[in-house]
Write a structure and sequence with these properties.
Elements: H1 2-52, H2 56-62, H3 70-83, H4 92-125
């Protein structure tokens, strides 16, 4: 009787162990896929920051933008560009910062658009 009980306990541990190992493998694969997806976006964003010399947060602060919408970016850009025009007593330095901020935000929008296209293609493939 004790022998059968011991076999049942051992078999139970084996079943639970295999299920745990399989779940762990699936979780690891899912986290790797998510990391690769985030990595591409992060690398693209970092590359855009190094090209323009400005972080995304800095560009949003300069143009006073909380959400990335093309209309809001264009509206704030035009206003700040005109206000900082040298002919109306503005600063060329500030005007150039406004231009760089718009370039950085436009680059971020294109990265997001590209990522959305890739995701929609992946969703249609599966």
């Amino acid at each position: 009787m004790a022998r059968y009980l011991a076999q049942i306990v051992v078999m139970g541990f084996q079943v639970v162990g295999r299920a745990f190992a399989r779940a762990l493998q699936q979780e690891y694969a899912a986290s790797q896929a998510a990391a690769r997806a985030r990595g591409r976006t992060g690398q693209q964003s970092a590359a855009a920051s190094s090209i323009t010399g400005m972080s995304l947060q800095e560009a949003q602060q300069i143009l006073n933008i909380s959400t990335l919408t093309p209309e809001e970016i264009q509206k704030n850009y035009e206003h700040l560009f005109k206000v900082n025009d040298k002919s109306v007593g503005g600063s060329f330095y500030l005007q150039s910062k406004v231009v760089r901020a718009k370039e950085r935000l436009d680059e971020e929008l294109s990265i997001q658009t590209q990522n959305q296209k890739e995701q929609s293609q992946q969703n249609t493939e599966t």
